[in-house]
Structure formats: structure tokens, C-alpha cells
Amino acid sequence: MDTVTHGLTGWLIARSLPEKWKGGHPKTVAAVVSLAAVLPDADNAASLLGSEMYLRVHRGLSHSLPGILVTSLVLALLFARYGKLKDRRAVFLLALLGQFSHVALDLLNSYGTQILQPFTDARFALDILFVVDLVFTGIILAGIALSRVNPARARTALAALSVYVGLAALFHAGARDAVRDAALRDGVKVVSVHALPTLPYIQLTTPDRLAFASPAQASAPTAPGEDAGKAVKRPLEIPFPAGPFAWNGFVDDGRTYLRAEIEPLTGQVSWRQRTLRGADVPEVRALRGIADVETYLWFARFPAVVVTSAGGRTEVTFFDLRFGGIPERKPFLLRVTELPGALPIARWGVSSPSPGERAR
What is the pTM of this model? Predict the structure, then answer.
């Protein structure tokens, strides 16, 4: 989830705690839990070290269960030394509660969190909520506001959040079943199937009418490689990140990835993309061993590539179908250029590689 929502969640949790747990210092407790709830995102500073480092580090050790134990202990020692609440054990548990809430929320979306670092760099994701959800954040804000009068309202808000997540989980299960059924009906071999929350859009059909975009009817999958790197354009729609009402379905048939848009209320499926699995493309195999390429293939859930060749120059553009098509910003796009007699040149983002820049 976004960092603001993490901090607000920590504040709400602090408000929900029984008064006897606060040791007569409710403001200190709120500060500890709120700070702890945003602390794991300190790893965003890794973006200063480049895109590859950012992908490796973000949601890594600082978001792992061993990592939050260590940083909670550090917070406990600092607050016990310089704050009003001197009970180290109490501060440690409060900090751990705040950081655990951060990890739990991040697991709800599809980015992937390395909760078992440093033992493994496997990324875990529940694929239930989009990374920004105004309904989720709105429930938190309402709980904070109402709890100023009655602290019990904070616990009610937490219960409402649990119900909301449960509802989203039902939508997730329905979307996954819908795309699996559509693939089988269309004769597609199903090796694995996933449903990921995506950014909802509001359709602007006429100046005086606003409505959620109508789902497209189910259509047969496109030929492998067709529209491989093209995201669906929405010229008359604006993003509105609220509610678990927009889903992408992904099918791996052992040779290609297929992406579909799913309307969870009706189960209607519209196939949007089909492309060869990036790791199996010959031009990608030739680039294996390059650090940037290995990092991208490790990070991407559904790695795909577009290969262009002209005048002896070959450019391999890596992207992740999870994001719909070729993204327009770092760190989710990697281009590797091969020139005759030269080492491959890697560049993150859309800009052209600078002279002398080499893949590591």
C-alpha cells in the first residue's frame, strides 16, 4: 500500500488499543505505532542507487519478519531512552505491531514482498487489493476521526477493514475462476492462472454522464506475440483507485502468457494480450547472466519482451504484463541494446543508452 495509508493505519491501530496498554502516554504510543508503520518503506532510498538496486532492495529485508524484529528493537531502545514511555518491552511490542501492519498490508497487493529475507528472496503476494485504494484509506480516515469522540470506533473501523478485505478476496477468487473457465472454453492449455487487482477507471461517455467502464464481451485470445507490448488505451476514461472492481487475469499455457480484463460482478472476460514468455525468447537466453537482466526476470511476475533489429543493432525491451504493457517510467522497464563487436548496453527506463554504459 502507499506510505500515507501505512501511517494512517498505524495511527488507527494506536487509537484502538486499550488505555491500560498506553501507560498514560497515548501520544507517545500513537507516535511509536505510526512511525513503525511507515518505517519499512525507508528502503525507498535505494532508488538513489539505481533501478536494479531498487528492485532488489525494496520490500526486501526491511519488510521481512526477521528485519522488523531488529528494527522494532532499535525503535524500542530509542523511545525508551528519549521518549516518555520507558517500558522497553511495551515499546518493542508497539513498534512490532506497527511494522507487522505494514507487512500485512503490502502482502495484500501484487507487487511482492520478501518476508523471509535473508533466508530467501522469494516474493509473496496475495493479489487482493490494488496498491492505492481510496475506499480502504477512507475507512481508516473515518475511524480516526470518529475515534476522537469514542475510541471504540477505531476498533469498529478495523473490523470494517477486515470485512472489506474479505470482500476483495471473494472478488479475487471469482476473477481467477472466470479467467480459468474462459481459457478452457477457448481451448487454451492452463498451466497456471492468476487474478491481480488493477487500477479501476471511470468512463467518460458524455459530458453529463459518469459511470464505471462497461466490460468488454469475452473474445478469443489473440495470436501469440500480437499486441505484445501494447497496453489498452483509454482515451475517454480517468483512473479512480477505489474498490476491488477491476481485475486482470493471467494464464500461462506453457509457452505464452495471456492477459484478460475481468468484470468481477458478471464474470465477463475480455482477452487483451498474448505474448511469448520472455525467459523463453532466444534473444533473452543470449542475455542471461547480465545482472540487470537477471534482476528483471527475478522481479517480473509475467516477463515479456519486444525485440527489434535493424542495421545490425538489436534491442530487447523487457516489461511485465502485470502492468498491462510497456510502462513509461523506471524501474519497471529495461532495454538492452546489442551492437556488433560491443558488449550489451543496458538502460532502465525509456531514454536511450548513453555512450559507454554497459550491462553488468
Answer: 0.85
